[in-house]
Structure formats: C-alpha cells, structure tokens
Design brief:
By secondary structure, this protein is of the alpha/beta class. It has one domain: Carbon-nitrogen hydrolase (Nitrilase/N-carbamoyl-D-aminoacid amidohydrolase), CATH 3.60.110. The chain is built from 7 helices and 15 strands. The protein starts with a strand and ends with a helix.
Length: 274
C-alpha cells in the first residue's frame, strides 16, 4: 500500500487551499499512490473564530472537490479535516475518507475537543465554537480495515484500541500540534499509539506558518507497528511517499502477541470494583 502525505500551507482563501490540493495531486500523479493523507483543517485557518465562517454542510464545495479529485486520480483520499455544519447549525471538526470512485466511505467528527491553557505557552479552546463527535471510526478498503481520528483524539488510548479491536491495521491521524505540544509530545504520542496497538500510524500535519495566529508544528510522520519512525518531515511544505507492507502488522503481532496477551478478566474486575 503506497501512501502520500501532503504537508501544505493553509491560506486564508479557502479556494486557494483547494487549488493547492489539486496541484499536489497532479505533481505526484506518476507515483501511482493508493492513499493520500492531508492535515487537520487543511482548508481553513486553525482559529476558533474562523470555524463557523468556513464551515460547510456535507456534500458541498470542499466535500465535492475532494470527492472529485479522489475519483479523477483513482486514489483513496483521507481528506484531512474541515469545519462541518450540520442541519441544526452545530459546527464540527470533521474528517472524510473517499474511495477511488469518489464515494465517501467514512466520516469522523473529532471526539475530544482541544482545550488547552498552558502557563507561558499555548492557549486554545475548540469548545468555544465546536461540538464534539461521538463515534469510533473504522473503514474498509481493498487493503483491509483502517482507523481514523483527529489530532487530540490520539491522546486517548481507548479510542485507538477500539479501532484496532474492530480490525484496523493502519490509523490515519490528521493533526495540528503547536509549538508547545509539538516538541514535547508529537513523536512520543504517535510512537506510543503505534506500539500499543501494533499498527501503522500515519500522522499528517499542515506546514508551519510562523505568521499565523496558531502556529503548527509540522513534522508529518509515518510510524511502524514496532514503534519506529519510518520517516518524518520538517516544518516546511512538501510531501512524502512511502510503501507499507501490511503483512508486517501480522508479523509483529505474531512474534510479540501483545494484543492476545491482554488480561481482560482482570481489567473487568477492577472496573467493576470501582
């Protein structure tokens, strides 16, 4: 399975972000990738006050363009995330997956909203404008089952484990860590979730813009089921392409049968006591 990760700048103009996506896809057309992954809020500046302004209902402009590009280039597209508005006017941080025919095969609304207030560091509250999702997202492909979550969701190991228990062997994570959490936790968290669940984890960020109100860490990366970083970008815009062998997931799980060795009987007893 060949994966391309696009680490793109996010511009104020939504249409410019969407045109940029098409340009990147044209650039790698000859590589014949199977899946393309984008960053969190790839079509919208990562600012709480912008989310309601940029939000679209499912099936409208950004959704249609992503669907059309997946079909045109005959690839699976993990379309980062974008602000979504539902019929009641609620705003979500939503990730869509499209198949090679442009059909939506998965949708994940960020379940854990990023509210942070670090003394001398980052302050940000997604809950000011966003509503939390309430689902664990796993989708089927010709390569097997994959999982999907968004950025802060990755900090909660229960969600990743649920995906793996439902059959996921790769987890896609559009993310936008910042200049406080990125240096401290980016590699640590992605390696931990890959190691915990013995699966590939694909973390895709937006490129860093030092002039933005929210400055992304960048450093898109791909982690193996053994917890090794296969490759990692720097903060600049660009892309990377790698081929992964999903048989390696089976090999790691067979040789170090972590998932099968869990003592659910003990865990259930402890939970029941509480």
């Amino acid at each position: 399975m060949k994966i391309a990760q696009f680490q793109m700048y996010v511009y104020e103009e939504k249409k410019k972000n969407l045109r940029q996506l098409e340009e990147y896809m044209k650039r790698i057309e000859q590589e014949q990738v199977d899946m393309i992954a984008l960053g969190e809020m790839f079509n919208c500046p990562y600012m709480t006050q912008k989310f309601p302004v940029y939000a679209e209902k499912e099936g409208t402009e950004s959704w249609e363009i992503c669907s059309g590009l997946a079909k045109q280039y005959h690839v699976y597209l993990s379309a980062g995330s974008m602000p979504e508005k539902d019929e009641a006017g609620r705003i979500y941080n939503t990730a869509y997956i499209f198949d090679r025919k442009g059909r939506q095969i998965a949708k994940h609304r960020k379940a854990h909203l990023f509210d942070i207030d670090i003394e001398g560091g980052q302050y940000f509250k997604e809950s000011d404008t966003l509503t939390a999702g309430d689902s664990c997202t796993v989708f089927e492909t010709e390569f097997g089952k994959m999982g999907l979550c968004i950025c802060y969701d990755l900090r909660f190991p229960e969600l990743s484990r649920m995906m793996v228990e439902q059959g996921a062997r790769v987890i896609f994570v559009p993310a936008a860590f910042n200049m406080t959490t990125g240096p401290a936790h980016w590699e640590l968290l992605f390696r931990s979730r890959a190691l915990d669940n013995q699966c590939f984890v694909v973390g895709t960020s937006d490129a860093r813009d030092e002039k933005a109100e929210y400055v992304s860490w960048g450093h898109s990366l791909l982690v193996s089921p053994w917890g090794n970083i296969i490759d990692e970008m720097d903060e600049k815009e660009g892309y990377m392409i790698h081929e992964i062998d999903l048989k390696y997931v089976d090999k790691v799980r067979r040789e170090l049968p972590l998932l099968n060795a869990r003592r659910k009987d003990i865990y259930r007893k402890e939970l029941h006591r509480r």
